[in-house]
Amino acid sequence: MGCITGIIGKIFQVCLGLLKIAAAVAILIIVTQHLVDISVISIEDVNVTIVDAGLSDLGTFSCLLGQLDSQYNSDVVNLCTYAYAVAGFSLFCTLVLFILLCVTCGCCGCGFIFESMFAIVGTLWWLGASIVFTKYGKEANDNMVPEEHWRNSVIAASWVAFSAFALTTLMALLKILDCATCGICS
Known about the structure:
Layout: H1 2-35, E1 36-43, E2 46-50, E3 59-63, H2 79-103, H3 111-142, H4 148-182
Antiparallel strand pairs: 1-2, 1-3
Helix pairs in contact: 1-2, 1-4, 2-3, 3-4
């Protein structure tokens, strides 16, 4: 029974790893393609988004991930830059850890320790980002800033990344607890 649960656990870990990568890539693509430097014009009181058209009755928005000021700029803290940093750094670290664990065959049995530490940091990293995106996204949605559906997609993807890291953390802590209980780590 231990082999089957071990295989299922490893498959689940791979799926979580792919989910982390997919969420980070999705955020990077959505922000780049749909939430940065967007021109919006107004036609008969209906906001129509036109990407890179140069027409700007309402203005060109620098970042539509959060609430805008009177000059059509995002909050003092540019949330799109923050999204790039969070998703890019997470993606980079996830890939580096994946390559490290593959090349060193699990770091001679210590791979789960590295993965555990990274999972805890990633969980906290994405929790903070998810809270920030949710808070500012809700304010922007309440004030009818254009591109609500793309903003909500970034919020959802950030919570997916948080959940994937949280499940990885839980699995790592359970493995550490198992090692402490029986004294054998596999």
